[in-house]
Amino acid sequence: MRITALGKPFLMFPKSYGCNDKATKSALRSTSADIFCFKGSKLSDKIGIIPTTNPSELEKNIQAKLGVTPVKTTVKKFQNGETYVNIAENVRGKDIYLMPANGSNVNDNLMETYLKADAAKRSGAKKVVAVMPSFDYARQEKRTESGEPIAARLNMDLLKTAGVDEIITTDLHSLAIEGFAPNSMPVTHLESMEMMKDYIKKKNIQDLVVVSPDIGGAKRTDKLSQALDCEKAIVYKYRKAHNEAAADCLIGKVAGKTCVVYDDIIDTAGTIAAVVNLLNKKGAKEIYVCATHGLFNGEAMKKLQEAPVKEVVVTNTVPKKDNTISKIKQLDMSSHIADAIKHISYSA
Known about the structure:
By secondary structure, the protein is of the alpha/beta class.
């Protein structure tokens, strides 16, 4: 019996010893071994996780799936509001993954991420990867009026300047944002569409229609409707002001059918409430809402509670609010992110 030692484990398991890694595929083809084993260090020796002060459910699940103990890290505020970061363990030569800061202040969260990246690089980290399931400033990816910045591009530049080598994110508001990253900073862009598809399929809904809440989300809606093999519709939306949307035109038929409104972000729920009320007026039988990032700011919970919505399905890229209503259902993204981490570090 012949045994062959491979330098890294399989990353995927199709029908028969499948693997996406070229080196491993080559080893499998060139050997006549009966048993394959893996050599090298454990994942915990190769990577380090820089935790947040108050770990979210997503962060805890990622750590559990990786089996890695977080690096001891201190984060605190000075009296003038400045953020202080100290990495209290040796991270030299490791791939360091920055967990997403999840406080209520987006700007503080970003500053914490920048400082952690800088601290890790100055401590000898081999690679710094920012895990940013919900990419901050993603909705400011273009100029709609003269005098505006392109904040999504600026955020990408600041991450690179701080020392971030790669980014893991989920369902960017616009796919073009990935192009803001330089070639030297790869972006692993995960999608929640398969999770949403599986969740909806389990309900065995008849006469299903997937609805885009605006013209910009038509491609996203098209992918889900194809996956579910159902019809689609589009709502024409316009904004009276920031966080104030109106919906008054529907392209498609929803009367007597079950609608799934599919979006990437729910912030104050103004858009969703307007779209759901329009669908209800047009005779929709039942209405579900699916979105990747549930921010639920302002009076979002109240609007969704009062709206004729059966369920609001989101992922846990954003931690649950204390005032979460029973209509909100969260799907866990930790497996996808943990797999991305393994792929990045084992492919190096």
